[in-house]
Specification:
By secondary structure, the protein is mostly helical. Helices cover 49% and strands 8% of the residues. Helix 1 crosses helix 2. The two termini are 19 Å apart.
Length: 165
């Protein structure tokens, strides 16, 4: 299903201009970095809460290698699952993206992309590697902060766009 990145209305196949608002669909209307950041902060709330609950139920109170492995595994599984499931089954939107009216779409078509591409895009999100993902993206695109800021989006061929004017 296609959506206009400017007004959010449903679009037909192979449309070059939105019939509702007249947006040129050949241009990418990228979401601002601050909206993406606030959406990410909002998304990490449920991930943190659910992960901490699971860790509280499963972990041993003493520091151990098991607890470190458990911590990393739980955060990866919950984080990856949250972002992938929401984006793959909710038109490219997590809860945070829905609130800030942005979505992740295919770079070339600006349409909802495949579940596989959403999986690739979110592989590092639930891990400490996410900070490395952001750092590489910022170093790679220093001249324009509104451009893609995560290198995993390069591999998944996705971008985050505005959905409502």
């Amino acid at each position: 299903m296609n959506f206009c990145p400017k007004c959010g209305c449903k679009l037909g196949e192979s449309v070059k201009f939105c019939e509702e608002c007249g947006a040129d669909l050949r241009e990418k209307i990228l979401a601002e970095v601050y909206f993406r950041g606030f959406a990410l902060i909002l998304d990490y709330g449920p991930i943190f809460a659910l992960s901490e609950l699971i860790l509280w139920l499963l972990s041993d109170p003493s520091p151990s290698l098991y607890n470190i492995f458990l911590f990393l595994s739980v955060y990866f599984l919950i984080g990856f699952g949250y972002f992938w499931l929401f984006e793959a089954y909710n038109n490219g939107q997590t809860i945070g993206k829905w609130v800030f009216r942005i979505r992740t779409v295919d770079t070339n078509t600006l349409e909802i992309t495949t579940k596989k591409r959403y999986a690739i895009n979110n592989l590092v999100r639930g891990t400490p590697l996410f900070l490395l993902d952001l750092a590489i993206g910022l170093v790679k695109n220093p001249e324009d902060p509104d451009k893609r800021i995560r290198w995993s989006q390069e591999f998944s061929k996705t971008i985050v766009v505005k959905t409502i004017k």
